[in-house]
Write a structure and sequence with these properties.
By secondary structure, the protein is of the alpha+beta class. It has one domain: 2-Layer Sandwich (Ybab, Chain: A), CATH 3.30.1310.10. It is built from three helices and three strands, in the order αβββαα. Strands 1-2-3 form a three-stranded antiparallel β-sheet. A hairpin with a 4-residue loop joins strand 1 and strand 2. Helix 1 packs antiparallel against helix 2.
């Protein structure tokens, strides 16, 4: 097996960086939905961990029980964010593709192993 030159390593690193940047830009388009209360509260997040939308069923809005509504919102948001994080991680790993296996010396990048 031949040695990979420093220039080749730099080219591979630059290509990897470009792929990661494209993948990160694509995370804005990822949509993940979480719900609580049997769908009475729904939250939508993107892959950048931003909440894009909250939907409430009118029946869950009770001025005398705001605590329940708050709990449902928190549960729906947490679920949406967890799903968005899972999808984002998968997309970033996919972006790395075969490049990681081509790095010299089986170099590992933390968080993508």
């Amino acid at each position: 097996m031949g040695r990979i030159g420093f220039t080749d390593m730099l080219k591979q690193a630059q290509k990897l960086q470009e792929q990661f940047q494209q993948a990160q830009e694509g995370l804005v388009k990822v949509r993940a939905e979480g719900s609580a209360g049997g769908g009475m509260v729904t939250a939508v997040a993107n892959g950048k961990q931003e909440i894009l939308q909250i939907r409430l069923d009118k029946s869950v809005v009770d001025p005398n029980d705001l605590e329940m509504l708050e709990d449902l919102i928190v549960a729906a948001v947490n679920q949406a964010l967890a799903k968005a994080q899972e999808t984002a991680s998968a997309e970033m790993s996919k972006a790395a593709g075969g490049l990681l296996s081509n790095l010299p010396g089986n170099l590992k990048i933390p968080g993508l192993e």
